[in-house]
Amino acid sequence: MTARLAAASALVSLASAPALADEGMWTLDNFPAEKVKEDYGWAPDQAWLDKVQAGAVRLTGGCSASFVSSSGLILTNHHCIATCLYDNSNDQSDYLLNGFVADRRENELMCPGQQAEVVTKITDVTGDVKAAFAGLAGDALTKARDAKIAEIESANCTDKAKTRCQVVTLFGGGQYKLYQYRKYSDVRLAWAPEDRAATFGGDPDNFNFPRYSMDASFLRAYENGKPVSTPNHLRWNPRAPIDGEMTFVVGNPGSTSRLYTQSQLAFEREVRLPMILATYSELRGRLIRAMEESPEHEREGLDMLGGIENSLKVYIGRVKALNDPAFTAKLAEAEAALKAETAGNDEIGDPWADVEEAVDAYRALYYPSRFTSPTGTLYGYAQTLVYAAQEREKPNAERLRGFTESALPLTEKRLTDAKPVYPWLDEMTMSWSLSKAREYLGVDDEDSKLLLGKESPEQLAERLVNGTKLADPAVRKALWDGGLAAIEASEDPMIQYALKLAPRQRELDEQTNELYSGPLAAAGAKLADARFAAYGDSLYPDATFTLRISYGQVKGWTERGKEVPTTTTMGGTFERATGNAPFDLAPGFVKAKDQIDMDAVYDFVTTNDIIGGNSGSPVIDRNGTVIGAAFDGNINSLGGNYGYDGSINRTVVVSTEAVQEALEKIYPAPALVKELAAK
Amino acid sequence: MTARLAAASALVSLASAPALADEGMWTLDNFPAEKVKEDYGWAPDQAWLDKVQAGAVRLTGGCSASFVSSSGLILTNHHCIATCLYDNSNDQSDYLLNGFVADRRENELMCPGQQAEVVTKITDVTGDVKAAFAGLAGDALTKARDAKIAEIESANCTDKAKTRCQVVTLFGGGQYKLYQYRKYSDVRLAWAPEDRAATFGGDPDNFNFPRYSMDASFLRAYENGKPVSTPNHLRWNPRAPIDGEMTFVVGNPGSTSRLYTQSQLAFEREVRLPMILATYSELRGRLIRAMEESPEHEREGLDMLGGIENSLKVYIGRVKALNDPAFTAKLAEAEAALKAETAGNDEIGDPWADVEEAVDAYRALYYPSRFTSPTGTLYGYAQTLVYAAQEREKPNAERLRGFTESALPLTEKRLTDAKPVYPWLDEMTMSWSLSKAREYLGVDDEDSKLLLGKESPEQLAERLVNGTKLADPAVRKALWDGGLAAIEASEDPMIQYALKLAPRQRELDEQTNELYSGPLAAAGAKLADARFAAYGDSLYPDATFTLRISYGQVKGWTERGKEVPTTTTMGGTFERATGNAPFDLAPGFVKAKDQIDMDAVYDFVTTNDIIGGNSGSPVIDRNGTVIGAAFDGNINSLGGNYGYDGSINRTVVVSTEAVQEALEKIYPAPALVKELAAK
To answer: Signal sequence: where (chains A, B) (predicted)?
Structure first.
């Protein structure tokens, strides 16, 4: 599961024009200080921004976070570490259900696949990368670009144990920037509330407000078995927010499509979103029913269901946004305005037409590309093993993105970290994805035949899942270490299946590069040039799961004529409870009822512009202290993938005041309270 | 389940302009003989049409059919009577799985809820109905219109045992016609192949061709315990179709929206279809998983799954059509052309604007209207009982449509016919629909609160389904007979729940009439006048599940550059079989393999314009003899709800030659063979 966050809708901004008030996921090297000062009378200076950057954490699980003590303590959301609770649970101890408080540091729980990263340096490498593919097109362009990126990353991060380098594509190819990170690959869980406290209201309340959710938790970064020292942490400030005060959200918004052209939006609306809506809704249904079959299924399926329902709500919101004529008209106007600004500029030409041609070509590649990689944890392991073995035979510059020297350590960590696999869940998922492949590709399609042979989706999934040994991390490690020889000699049916599919997947990748990604990279650079020429640097790039800052204020909104309040209180959750899931109170809340300060602010909303990936981001006041953790957007923000509307888009935050209440009274953790209070 | 049929897509006709070649679902009193003669050199005369009308049968289950012997024998599709097989099955004898051949007439199986109807007279009552609501608007208009319709129906069908009257609204309110039927309310099953033979290829092959499906069966109409005499039957002609020969499909297409205005299409695309796609896909997933839980669930869920998957494929096709800019551009052009023709005509004014206003108002009513009537067989019984009791207290003219004197007999039959109810299935369906209600209406919505109170969807569904006695037909009959007093005194929780919801449902109905249906009826009449003024009578009305004829020819098509053949052979099914569901051969086919004529034509395609409801329609040659039963449309025809494209839309038919093979060699029924051969 990546995150619960999203941002933007109806009075949408002009996507490629200068940002509206409070709009923007700004890179920390291009903060719009002047504009902010104009709007708010105050803006952070570079020292303030540097300090915040040093305390901001990216979690490779797909979330954001922040250091909040000098001993590596990390604040993030509960839903960002739910998988860690789930991976550490079993029939005897269900940490997801019951929450977790480490009685001492030695008992903090390892989180498989999780890694914490802090940006240490940002360097512009646009010139180098663009020069590498100048004059090239299609697949040749993407190969030359990726080779240069691999070279830059490799040269700048020689200490692979502690650093990570990533070249990030901004403005769809207008800029390339090298992000260097200090990384911490041993991350453990220190504190988490009960799942019922974090997910009170469940899917029905997700993306809604008023809200009553303790969506917070604490991790800790380790190195050599010891907590790391983090003197540059942010300061924990357990106070209530003040209506109208300025707030900054610093985190890693995952992905937005605000710079999409009309033809890209059409593809989303016409092809991609309807398919996702139908197929994921079916998976949701299969899983809901399966979880009713037994308490084990209920527990083992919970994490996946949360992820599916969250994603579906996001996609339903996107469908709604792209089916809203007022919303899409604004996007069309923005494109028309940029075209008008660019008219007659021969250097820019007509990149919109190039994008349209690429999108048209992609229409024939999309279903095959999507469906020839079946879904499932075990198949995913097999595919990674097969690709890694094949790619590692090549020089660094020729490898696929996830397998370059700079990317391999995280890929290996994710593959080999021990985590439970539930065969019934994998069989269900794989059977679903194979049957959807046949449905969307057609029975007589060659890719369908490659995927299924004479077997049914159900039979094939059962045979592969029951026959594979890849659930065992030692088996995965041995195959990883054994390289291509071990993979090719393997009799594991899942490995053999992944080997069988790989050539076709690679062929589709190449076609996609040739006809779609390559042309898009070239056109993207031109579109970015057009924007820079028209609007200067008053622009922010689409989200790329890299560090951004958004500014705004604590503020409610008006929904269908009714004022929505800015905050909820701890007492409100007792009033909303019905006794029935998902509106049943967490037992810890019931038990601590008499101690809890009913007037303490629980959750609150701000105008910050965020999206999925921002989950867990610290919400910071003017003084740079943490007053909450962002965990959601409101329902109006679901079109935020395409555009932002400050009048109704809101970020939903759990307040530090509420978390402090929980730390002191509901899930007591006196050591953490003390640690957070230290200067 | 209603039907597998649909029709129309890309080179779509101008919806409100004169029909293209082979387009049209024509009423039998307005057949375009001149145009057909021009295109084909021959056209049927009125005597031919009258003969065909006399042999054409409507099945109240939602299908079409035809009399094919003088002793009441009826040809229709297997999927039209699958529910009858299902209702007659149990753990001991699974007729759906094994098929059914009555060894003698006394053993033919009763089909609950099924009724056969033959049109005997069509009368234009447009003047009467329009006069009744002249000068009225909104809810008052719909009330006056419905009162007049009830009066006409009641006055013209005094023999309620043998006749049925229905006033049908054509051209969205341009015409009102009284259809009188001879009805046969005792319908029994004589012959059906194995489910695997009818549904070979399952959902993957549904709406596709080449096809290998024995989607045929025979019913028989009874009266007073004896087969009825049907001298005006059509003649059974067990021969192969000839490439290019003319074909006529006579049946009851259920519903099309080809006369929709742009604002109605926008509502479909923006609101209705995405919701249906997501919610029904989830139900599909729940049911797929539930059916894997046990052989009983597998058997008991099969019929519903077939219906859901069929509907979903139709809706996915509609989404695709309305997301195809080429397709929708044609529809927009057609509207623009009609507007241009009408410009300056003050009598017509701007009905498009009236429709848009009505649709805008409906946006706020749609979710509440849809979700305040939960889904489920048992809840459906309760709702019918409550409404019937309340409506029967009123004079005929003031009752809701399904409860007028003319409609009550079928309503009562459907309610009281014995058929199995599977509580797990009803609980699943109801729990699903209540949870979707909360999702789409929102937790804090008043209708959500009315539906759920403090209970969860799962709890409420369990309590109502486990507590109700309505699965027992005797209980339903007693409550029906007991009227309002019995209903209000009932302690059945499902009845109490239906009573609780009824006032809000009625309020929403009235608001819908006032703001949507009433304005649409008035605007529809004007739009029809505009069409008649511009194009004369060279028009066919949208489908209304009343008798229509479509003409065309036996003809393949070109799909992505490849010729699709016109026919398949019995031998082809053996080649396509993989041994795995849904491509596993029916055991009967395996057993009879050496006897079957491998070159016999199995299924074939024609250019006829049909849609769901046409399932089971006789496919008739120039001589008026039956050469097949239509059972499907091809994949391109799924946009047929909105428009027809003769170049790629096809009707899929099971040939009489194949059915004859089955009757003689696979599922031998010598008595039927003899009966069909008789003159």
So the answer is: 1-21
> Mean pLDDT, to the nearest integer, of B520-542?
92
User: What b/e readout covers B644-665, taking b as 16+ CB neighbours within 10 angstroms?
Assistant: bbbebbbbbbbbbbbbbbbbbb
CA B543, B547, B553, B556 dihedral sign is positive
Q: Are strands B651-655 and B625-633 parallel, antiparallel or unpaired?
A: antiparallel
Residue B201 contacts A, CB cutoff 8 Å: yes
Mean pLDDT of A413-435: 96
Residues A617-653: tens digit of each pLDDT: 999 999 999 999 999 999 999 989 999 999 999 999 9
The two tokens of residue A314 are: 């996001």
Neighbours of B333 (CB within 10 A): 14
- B371: chain A residues, CB-CB within 8 Å: none
CA-to-CA distance for B305 and B1, rounded, in angstroms? Answer: 9
Q: Nearest CA to B381 among B318, B455, B469, B292? A: B469
Rounded Cα distance between B588 and B198, Å, is: 12
- Across B197-285, the runs of DSSP E, i.e. the strands, are 217-223, 226-227, 235-236, 246-251
Could you give the angle at the alpha carbon of A184 between the alpha carbons of A182 and A186, nearest 5°? 175
Would you say A421 and A378 are in contact if contact means Cβ atoms under 8 Å apart?
yes
Closest in B204, B286, B438 to A438, CB measured = B204
Q: How far is CA B13 from the centre of its chain?
A: 23
Whether residue A6 is predicted with pLDDT greater than 70 in this model: the reply is: no
C-alpha B494: how far from chain center = 28
Residues of B in contact with A288 (CB under 8 A): 282, 285-286
pLDDT for A537 equals 83
* Tens-digit pLDDT profile for residues A330-365: 999 999 999 999 998 989 999 999 999 999 999 999
Strand partners, A219: A74, A189
CA nearest to A453 within chain B: B578
A439: closest CA among B376, B281, B40, B223?
A: B281
Per-residue pLDDT tens over the stretch B172-200: 999 999 999 999 999 999 999 999 999 99
pLDDT higher than threshold 80 for residue B2: no
A636 close to A10: Cβ distance less than 8 angstroms? yes
Cα distance between the two ends of chain B: 34
Task: Closest CB to B323: pick one of A201, A270, A316.
Answer: A270
List of domains in chain B: 33-115+185-257+541-677 (2.40.10.120), 262-535 (no CATH)
With contact defined as beta carbons under 8 Å apart, do A409 and A115 qualify?
A: no
Confidence tier at A19 by pLDDT (50, 70, 90): low
Is residue A414 classed as helix, strand or coil in its secondary structure? helix
Alpha carbon distance B223, A124 (integer Å): 87
Question: CB under 8 Å, gap of 24 or more: what pairs does A563-567 form?
Answer: A564/A209, A564/A210, A564/A605, A565/A210, A566/A241, A566/A243, A566/A604, A566/A605, A567/A240, A567/A241, A567/A243, A567/A601, A567/A602, A567/A603, A567/A604, A567/A605, A567/A655
Q: Is-contact A609 A648, C-beta < 8 A?
A: no
Burial bucket for residue B278 (CB in 10 Å: 0-12, 13-18, 19+): buried
Look up tokens 């207008």; give the residue: A174
Q: What is the mean pLDDT of chain B?
A: 94
**Average pLDDT, stretch A175-189?**
97
Tell me the shortest Cα–Cα distance from B640 to chain A, in angstroms.
18
Pairing, β A109-110 against β A235-236: unpaired
Q: Strands B217-223, B73-76: parallel, antiparallel or unpaired by DSSP?
A: antiparallel
- Rounded alpha-carbon distances, angstroms, from residue A219 to A183, A657, A663: 14, 19, 14
CB-based contact, B285 to chain A, within 8 Å: yes
**pTM > 0.90: yes or no:** yes
State the average pLDDT over residues B57-80. 97
Q: Is A317 exposed, middle or buried (0-12, 13-18, 19+ CB in 10 A)?
A: buried
